[in-house]
Amino acid sequence: MNSDLTRLQPLSDFTRRDFVMTSLAAGFALAVQPVAAETITTDTAGLVAGEVQIPVGDGKIPGYRAHPDKGGPFPTVLVVQEIFGVHEHIRDICRRFAKLGYFAVAPELYARQGDVSKMTDFSKIIAEVVSKVPDKQVMSDLDATVAWAKASGKANTEKLGVTGFCWGGRIVWLYSAHNPNLKAGVAWYGRLVGQADELHPQHPLDIAGDLKAPVLGLYGGADMGIPNDTVEKMQAALKGANKPSEIVLYPDTPHGFHADYRPSYRKDKADEGWKRLQEWFRKHGVS
Questions:
Q1: Which of 87, 166, 203, 260 does the annotation list as catalytic?
Q2: Is 223 tagged catalytic?
Q3: pTM for the complete prediction?
């Protein structure tokens, strides 16, 4: 009888139910402290903002959402976390979008694999958590986040955009090839090439011809982790595939130039990139 019931129950692609993270960590990740004096803090005046629980295929993951407290439904932006998870910087970015009239939501995409907010060793963060997060799981969780946003009644998911930073920058490219309903993406210094493995079978260069939405890439010419030649390869692949995506390469600019809480922050490039993001979203129907 039990076996019959098992056959009748729908199976999830992700069967692990012991979620490591059931709520977001407070403040900034330990690995990035102390935070810089330039750190931007956006208030919640005129906003609905805070932690939420997002139903996914095998349970719920925590996330952060922000939107104006009056009106709606609002154009929707998925904010994909850096390597440090949905810590205070990512939450602040959601509030910045909300101040511009968007419904912004950042799901915690490491919820099953680990809580990086309390880890201080960068190599340990990569080895013990980040490397174990399957791309397939991330795509599914982002789809679930869109469905949750739509069901809230405050998000107009027909005007859907995605942006992400560092680890999330790579995800922006992948999600733009995954979701046919996406209008546009903006990828901030996300890795473009890499060794394929079972959990990460493709990288942005591999799917340049499969993009279903135009992506704006914002990269630093002095990024030691993303060599300029890989950026040039991606630019050539986009051109060869006749895709309306673009990559801006800022000379003498390091990785993490938008991260105002870190020494890598470059205000002029961050401000220009943020302006470009807004123009890109307007141009492609996200606002």
A1: 166
A2: yes
A3: 0.93
Per-residue pLDDT reduced to its tens digit, 198-246: 999 999 999 999 999 999 999 999 999 999 999 999 999 999 999 999 9
Asked if residues 208 and 170 have their Cβ atoms less than 8 Å apart, the reply is: no
In the 3-class helix/strand/coil scheme, how is 116-174 assigned residue by residue?
Answer: HHHCCCHHHHHHHCHHHCCHHHHHHHHHHHHHHHHHCCCEEEEEEEEEEECHHHHHHHH
Under 8 Å between Cβ of 168 and 81: yes
Amino acid at 216: L
200 an active-site residue? no
**Exposed e or buried b per residue across 201-215, where buried means at least 16 C-beta atoms within 10 angstroms of its C-beta:** eebbbbbbeebbbbb
Query: Out of 89, 223, 258, 284, which one is annotated catalytic?
Result: 223
101 vs 17: CA distance, rounded Å? 35
Q: At 106, is the secondary structure helix, strand, or coil?
A: strand
pLDDT tens by residue, 3-17: 333 333 333 444 445
Give residue limits of the domains in the chain.
Answer: 36-283
Backbone CA torsion sign across 279, 88, 170, 232: positive
CATH 3.40.605.10 fits 36-283, yes or no: no
**Phi/psi zone of residue 265: left (φ > 0), alpha (ψ -120 to 50 degrees), beta?**
beta
Q: Does residue 255 have an active-site annotation?
A: yes
Residues 62-74 have pLDDT tens digits of 999 999 999 999 9
Residue of 67, 87, 255, 258 marked active site:
255
Residue 199 exposure: Cα atoms within 13 Å on the Cβ side: 10
